[in-house]
Write a structure and sequence with these properties.
Among the domains are: about 180 residues, P-loop containing nucleotide triphosphate hydrolases (Rossmann fold, 3-Layer(aba) Sandwich); about 110 residues, no CATH class. Helices cover about 50% and strands about 10% of the residues. The protein is built from 17 helices and eleven strands.
Length: about 525
């Protein structure tokens, strides 16, 4: 098929896959005759019958009323997409016959295909919820979504493997669902060792791995790696189906290595974050160290302005009362801010407004996007919040600015303590981050061991798959020459017949042949035979 020696209508990968899935379920679906060993249906029937016997006396409550149901017994859900009911032999009827042979009442083993419309589905689902159905068998398309029979569901069986991880999730969502009265349920994935089940589970594993990566929502990576627990579960089922114990060991080793690699990546990300933390903390510490002398100088120059001691200079004029200072601020601002903020800029420095409490006061006109400009008054060289008031409000009453400025001057000692505490906090943060940065990755040895184990298993698996060694080159060439080039053999025969070699002569050994780096020897008749 790969070499296109057969037409797609005669055979294609879909047909091969379907035959492989059917053979894994029961050989009668392919060859028409049962296999000599128990089929998947035999094993599944035995498992289902055992679970039925263990839970046939379980007591449940009616979902509608909440009262104890007079009918005991749990429910099992069986999913099988192949061998659906039909006139000839099929997997559904075979499974029911085997369950009945093991003691289950025939009327308690039902097929979802019996319900042909919504009304019949409703009656079948109600019977399953009320204990009249012990085993409900169906396909993903008919029973994978919208099935509300979880109240008594004690076990779910995957007889075959669908093509999409979402189908498996939908199937298992019928039992792992709110309203299930069982504290613990069982999910069984039935596989045949060494069968096409391995290919089926490998397919959903590959799809689930990719889907899990996409669902993380990260746009900063350009690679896909195996991270999902669901994908690992699929890998384990695939390994079991392969029949090679090394594959299961490889799946487990790869899972452990992947887990440790994720921890290593998290450790490396944390190391980078710690480096940034140290740099940020050191900047904050340096800033605190730079600000403290300026604040100390401002504290030394402070003059009390409380009560009648208030004095403030605005421009070249001196005010002894707060209302007078407010009027002077209005006049000064009207003159200094008459041009506003230049187009394209957010702020316009206005220079020194004056002095309050021994501190020089600088003014800035600031304009936010879509808002009225505001006047900001700040103590020069001190990292305190400026006194702020909208320009329109300054024109009405500037008393708010006076109160804010007096508070800033009086708060200088407390500001010094806050800046000092921030510096100490930054230093402690940098020290802790530095200590954490020096810690090595604690799972390094385990990761090295897991990586070595995975590689060793891979090498062992590769060695098992190596073909038999080819025969020696000389022997292969000698044996194959007549078949590869019969014309050359015939030419040699004719040459020997028409140009016989001198008596006693023999073809020279390879070592005696002339080198192509030197001129060839004179031609002799024996050269033709040679």
């Amino acid at each position: 098929m790969r070499g296109k020696r057969v037409s797609p209508e005669e055979d294609n990968m879909l047909k091969i896959s379907t035959d492989g899935r059917k053979a894994a379920l029961d050989m009668r679906m392919v060859a028409g005759e049962p296999s000599s060993t128990p089929s998947k249906l035999d094993v599944a029937a035995a498992r289902i019958a055992t679970i039925w016997a263990e839970h046939r006396d379980n007591v449940y409550r009616e979902p509608e009323t909440g009262e104890i149901s007079a009918r005991p017994g749990a429910l099992q859900l069986v999913f099988c997409d192949l061998g659906t009911p039909r006139e000839e032999w099929n997997a559904y009827d075979e499974l029911r016959d085997q369950l009945v042979a093991r003691g289950l009442p025939a009327n308690q083993v039902r097929f979802i295909h019996e319900a042909r419309n919504d009304a019949e589905k409703g009656r079948l689902f109600a019977a399953a919820r009320n204990g009249h159905v012990a085993v409900l068998i169906g396909s993903t398309a008919k029973m994978g979504a919208g099935l509300n029979v979880q109240a008594r569901a004690i076990a779910l069986h995957h007889i075959d493997c669908p093509w999409r991880p979402a189908d498996i999730e939908e199937r298992e969502g019928r039992i792992m669902r709110q309203g299930n009265q069982n504290a613990e349920v069982g999910i069984y994935r039935h596989i045949v060792e060494g069968s096409f089940d391995s290919y089926s589970w490998q397919t959903v594993e590959r799809k689930q791995t990719f889907i899990t990566q996409i669902m993380r929502g990260r746009l900063d990576v350009r690679e896909i790696d195996d991270i999902g627990d669901t994908a690992l579960s699929f890998a384990e089922v695939k390994a079991l189906a392969s029949g090679d114990p090394l594959i299961l060991e490889k799946a487990a080793a790869d899972s452990e290595r992947t887990r440790l690699e994720r921890l290593q990546r998290a450790y490396q990300r944390n190391q980078h974050a710690l480096t940034r933390t140290i740099a940020s903390a050191e900047l904050r510490f340096d800033e605190s160290a730079r600000q403290l002398p300026a604040i100390g100088a401002a504290i030394s120059a402070s003059v009390d302005t409380r009560g009648d001691a208030f004095r403030m200079t605005i421009g070249d004029r001196r005010a002894t009362t707060r209302p007078e200072a407010a009027r002077l601020i209005q006049d000064w601002t009207a003159q200094a801010a008459r041009h506003g903020v230049p187009y394209g800029r957010r702020e316009q420095p206005l220079g020194q407004l004056g002095e309050l409490g021994g501190q020089p006061i600088d003014a800035t006109l600031r304009k936010a996007i879509g808002s009225v400009p505001s006047l900001e008054l700040s103590i020069r060289g001190v990292p305190a919040q400026p006194a702020t008031l909208y320009l329109d409000d300054v024109r009405k009453d500037a008393m708010s600015l006076i109160r804010q400025l007096e508070h800033r001057v009086g708060d200088l000692p407390a500001l010094a303590e806050r800046v000092k505490a921030a510096g100490v906090k930054a230093a402690d943060e940098a020290a802790r981050a530095q200590q954490a940065l020096s810690q090595p990755f604690k799972h390094a040895d385990a990761l090295a061991t897991a990586t070595a184990r995975s590689s060793a298993i891979a090498i062992e698996m590769r060695d098992r798959q190596q073909p038999d060694p080819e025969p020696s080159t000389a022997a292969a060439t000698t044996a194959a020459a007549p078949a590869i080039d019969p014309a050359l053999a015939e030419l040699k025969r004719l040459t020997a017949a028409n140009f016989p070699a001198p008596a006693g002569s023999a073809p020279p050994s390879p070592a005696a042949r002339p080198s192509t780096r030197h001129a060839p020897p004179p031609r002799r008749d024996s050269d033709l035979s040679r």
